[in-house]
């Protein structure tokens, strides 16, 4: 079974990854918007510190990307956003499986009882 710190950390990770996916979608939606600056989501370092402190709870932060801008003032890079989305999706699936494992075990135990 997952201890409370692990469970809280996985929940925080899922929340951060979901926010990252929404932010990436927003960036892509604004790829042609003049003067739009892409946003980036950070949570991994804060989450690692929180786990090390025995807490496991951490909030994601959204910041403006410092990548160079194009002539129209926009700095969204479709290649970067696409790769970041794939990475976030795979990480989300992995974390969701980690949460699902113990729940599946409990369900299986309840069915045999």
Shape: elongated
Number of domains: 1
**What's the mean pLDDT score?**
92
The biggest sheet, with number of strands, parallel, antiparallel or mixed sense and barrel status, is: 2 strands, antiparallel
- Count every beta strand, where a strand is a DSSP E run of 2 or more residues: 2
Q: H/E order of the elements? A: HEHEH
Largest beta sheet: strand ordering: 1-2
Helix content: 55-70%
Radius of gyration: 18 Å
Query: If helices are DSSP runs of H or I spanning 4 or more residues, what is the number of helices?
Result: 3
Q: Spans of 5+ residues with little confidence (pLDDT < 50)? A: none
What does this protein look like?
The protein has 113 residues and is mainly α. It has one domain (4-112). The chain contains three helices and two strands; from the N terminus they run αβαβα. It has helices at residues 4-29, 44-52, 78-112; strands spanning 39-42, 61-64. Strands 1-2 form a two-stranded antiparallel ribbon. The protein is elongated and about 65 Å long. The relative contact order is 0.20.
Write a brief structural summary:
The chain has 113 residues and is mostly helical.
List the helices and strands and how they pair.
Layout: H1 4-29, E1 39-42, H2 44-52, E2 61-64, H3 78-112
Antiparallel strand pairs: 1-2
